[in-house]
UniProtKB/TrEMBL annotation, chain A:
Signal peptide: none annotated. This is KLTH0G17556p. Residues 7-18 have a biased composition (Polar residues). Keywords: Membrane, Transmembrane, Transmembrane helix. The lineage of its organism: Eukaryota, Fungi, Dikarya, Ascomycota, Saccharomycotina. It comes from Lachancea thermotolerans (strain ATCC 56472 / CBS 6340 / NRRL Y-8284) (Yeast). It comes from the Eukaryota.
UniProtKB/TrEMBL annotation, chain B:
Pathway: Lipid metabolism; sphingolipid metabolism; Sphingolipid metabolism. Gene3D superfamilies: Aspartate Aminotransferase, domain 1, Type I PLP-dependent aspartate aminotransferase-like (Major domain). SUPFAM superfamilies: PLP-dependent transferases (SSF53383). This is serine C-palmitoyltransferase. One of its GO terms (molecular function) is pyridoxal phosphate binding. It is an enzyme of class 2 (transferase). One of its GO terms (cellular component) is membrane. GO terms for biological process: ceramide biosynthetic process; sphingosine biosynthetic process. InterPro entries: Aminotransferase_I/II_large, AON_synthase_class-II, PyrdxlP-dep_Trfase, PyrdxlP-dep_Trfase_major, PyrdxlP-dep_Trfase_small. The lineage of its organism: Eukaryota, Fungi, Dikarya, Ascomycota, Saccharomycotina. Belongs to the class-II pyridoxal-phosphate-dependent aminotransferase family.
């Protein structure tokens, strides 16, 4: 017997085995698996998620929907003002900025800036937090239809240009639509050296 | 063979059949479209955006169709199973089968506890003497020496302090019944916070309305999932609740074993270096100044050394040590001649124990205190203390600053009490004293040998049984061996009360709330108002009761 102290898990570690080490990673993971799903919430996490989540609740509001349109219009106005930018490029840049911006906001940053949930949302992106994770809600429908509509409009105004079309199309599908699909809900792709490990263990 | 439209790059071969069938479809679609009013504009838009490029239109069409499909789906949760469809008869049958449990269960096995709870009645001749009844007034005792009170210093029971409390009630009423930030705090509250901070030597103090819930409020205010807490494995139930609510990863080290703590911290540090987390977790060491269940004192200098070395913050629950340890009752920091603001980061203290008032407080630096005022639930949502409890506590602090005779007297009584028990060789086969000599509560429990001989249990076996019940999520926890031991201890209490008029108490705990090892024990408290002779005779009577009951 070594006289090293045994690591005992917390009473809240979610495990009934008193001598087990605390659960290391909340994501289901096999060795060297690149694609994994976020594990379903434990009872304790669900309990902490009962507090109103101010990070995601505003997304439902109609004003927040209108802001998407306003931002797109402002972006278009801004790119129109830049010298040397043709109308085609101005639409393409508007689409690119909106799509990448919404990706950062909805799919890249995890957790909440508030301290009310004891970190129960720290493994979830904002897209996964809104509407308590229910799919096909009005807010989600709106948020997926906006980039599609923006793509149709911008591709309409970029006319013949096959390169701009390809740029717009691939950005819209890969960055705005695919991450919002039900198939990719709570899906994590690990790219060694690029993605950082999850904060919550 | 027909050539494909010129816009298509000739390098991509398109099968004849596809072209032909799509042309037909397109033709009939066009005819149908002309029949619908307003469709002209849609067709012209489509024609414009089509730009004679069918692939492009195909991509766009694909996106549009997916958008429409998504739009018409019904809301549902991911992986959610539809509820099984039951016929009305099946539902009826299920309802008939169901037998509801009574909302409140009467537990006959535990009734003796309620029957043995003393109820203090009115004023008595001296502050150390009480009149009490038990079992709903069926038993009554008068002029009993109170060795069960944790109001150790007894300063606030002096007539001048009582008068000051009454004056405050005349002037301030009994409080706004509101939380601190919602009319609950009056000028006296801020004054007491300054006084506490000055007296204990920290930057700031935060006043709470109730001492038990402070830990459960302060720790979660600073921690969340992913943070690390290293705690002593004998901390009291208030801290146990707090650790659970902290949602952090909690590790326990063996009680007061600094070697084990260091080894654990070393292991954790090693692991953290390997993990390369994106951001650093908050790390705390949690312990008590004077342990509520055992009465011993941790090695603070070593703890401070370790916390500095491994970059942890130190939280000490000083509910029972403030007013008791140190020359002026400034707690464990004064006891070890250390500065509080340089050694302990968060101190939890109680006004309801030695200081003889009500409520509690947290000592610490400015930033930590300001965060609590908006982030600590018990501070922001619970009613603040009534003004008279606050002014009483303020006056007690003033008194302690000028006159430490009560603390010194208490210390000499504590040492005498411990000496009387430790030196008695007749007792040693039956009981062991766990508390430190400085503690004004003498904690003693049955020896391991006696326990295993009479009840066939050990400390470990009790904890194992408890954790097994915990794992099964049993709400009612009942351990036969523990219960029998408690009953034996209660017999000692009863005998001391009935035959010698000395009131001591079991260390009361509720099994279902305990998540850490706990052992039944007895507590004998001294207070500064007792005379040496009084205490000496009380100790003798308790000893005789112990001997009488254990050698049965």
């Amino acid at each position: 017997m070594s006289d090293r102290p045994q690591l005992k898990s917390s009473p809240s570690g979610g495990s009934s085995n008193a001598l087990l080490e605390p659960v290391k990673d909340r994501r289901r993971r096999r060795s060297s698996s690149l694609i994994s799903h976020v594990e379903p919430e434990t009872l304790e996490e669900e309990n902490d998620q009962q507090m109103p989540n101010m990070n995601a609740s505003w997304v439902d509001q109609r004003g927040a929907w209108a802001v998407h349109i306003v931002i797109i219009m402002l972006l278009k106005g801004f790119y129109n003002l830049l010298p040397g930018i043709t109308n085609e490029w101005s639409w393409t840049l508007t689409n690119t900025t909106y799509v990448i911006g919404s990706y950062i906001m909805f799919h890249l940053v995890k957790g909440t800036p508030f301290d009310f949930n004891g970190g129960a949302y720290d493994n979830l992106t904002m897209w996964e937090q809104i509407n308590d994770g229910v799919l096909y809600t009005p807010a989600r429908k709106f948020l997926i239809l906006v980039p599609i509509a923006l793509f149709l409009v911008s591709t309409h105004y970029t006319r013949y240009d096959i390169q701009l079309f390809l740029l717009n199309f691939s950005l819209t599908t890969l960055v705005a639509v695919v991450p919002k699909l039900p198939v990719t809900h709570r899906l994590r792709i690990t790219i060694p050296g690029l993605t950082s490990p999850a904060q919550i263990k | 063979m027909r050539q494909p439209p010129e816009v298509l790059p000739s390098s991509i071969p398109v099968p004849e059949a596809v072209l032909r069938s799509s042309s037909y479809v397109w033709y009939y679609c066009q005819r149908a479209a002309h029949a619908i009013p307003g469709m002209r504009y849609v067709v012209s838009y489509v024609r414009k955006s089509h730009q004679d490029d069918p692939y492009r239109t195909l991509f766009e069409l694909f996106l549009i169709i997916y958008g429409i499909i998504y739009f018409f789906r019904k809301p549902r949760k991911q992986g959610e199973q539809a509820a099984p469809k039951l016929s009305e008869r099946e539902v009826e049958a299920l309802l008939d089968e169901w037998e509801p449990e009574p909302i409140a269960q009467q537990n006959i096995k535990l009734e003796w506890r309620a029957k043995s709870t003393p109820v203090l009645m009115g004023n008595s001749s001296a502050p150390t003497r009480v009149n009490l009844t038990r079992d709903e007034g069926r038993e009554s005792y008068s002029d009993v020496l109170n060795c069960a009170s944790t109001s150790f210093l007894q300063i606030s029971s002096d007539p001048e302090f009582v008068k000051a409390a009454k004056d405050t009630i005349h002037q301030y009423g009994v409080g706004a019944c509101g939380p601190a930030g919602f009319y609950g705090n009056q000028d006296v509250h801020s004054e007491l916070e300054y006084n506490l901070a000055r007296f204990f030597g920290t930057e700031r103090a935060v006043l709470y309305g109730q001492d038990f819930c402070i830990a459960a409020s302060v720790i979660p205010a600073f921690t969340k999932r992913g943070d690390v807490i290293v705690a002593d494995d004998r901390v009291n139930v208030a801290l146990q609740n707090a650790l659970q609510l902290s949602r952090s990863t909690v590790y326990y080290y063996n009680h007061n074993d600094m070697e084990a703590l260091e080894e654990l911290l070393e292991q954790l540090q090693e692991r953290e270096l390997n993990e390369k987390l994106p951001s650093l977790p908050r790390k705390f060491i949690v312990t008590e100044g004077l342990f509520q269940n055992l009465g011993d004192i941790p090695d603070l200098p070593r703890l401070v050394e370790l916390k500095r070395k491994y970059k942890y913050r130190l939280l000490v629950d000083e509910t029972f040590s403030l007013g008791v340890l140190g020359a002026n009752g400034r707690g464990i920091a004064e006891y070890y001649n250390m500065k509080r603001d340089a050694s302990v980061d968060i101190t939890i203290g109680s006004l309801a124990v030695a200081l003889g008032s009500s409520g509690g407080f947290v000592l610490g630096d400015n930033v930590m205190s300001m965060h609590q005022r908006i982030g600590s639930h018990a501070y922001t949502f619970s009613a603040a203390l009534p003004a008279f409890a606050v002014t009483t506590a303020s006056r007690v602090l003033d008194h302690l600053e000028h006159d430490n005779s009560a603390v010194q007297k208490l210390r000499s009584l504590s040492q005498l009490m411990h000496q009387l028990f430790i030196d008695d060789s007749e007792l040693s086969p039956y009981i062991e004293v766990t508390s430190s000599k400085e503690s004004s509560i003498l904690h003693f429990r049955l020896t391991d040998e006696y326990r295993s001989r009479v009840f066939h249990t050990t400390e470990e076996s009790l904890f194992q049984e408890l954790s097994a019940m915990h794992a099964k999520n049993l709400s009612e926890k009942y351990i036969e061996g523990c219960e029998r031991e408690e009953k034996l201890l209660q017999r000692i209490v009863d005998m001391a009360l009935k035959e010698h008029k000395v009131l001591l108490t079991r260390n009361t705990f509720v099994l279902k709330h305990e998540t850490l090892p706990v052992t039944p024990s007895l507590k004998l408290c001294c207070s500064a108002k007792m005379t040496e002779d009084e205490l000496r005779s009380a100790c003798e009577s308790v000893k005789s009761a112990v001997l009488a009951c254990t050698s049965e």
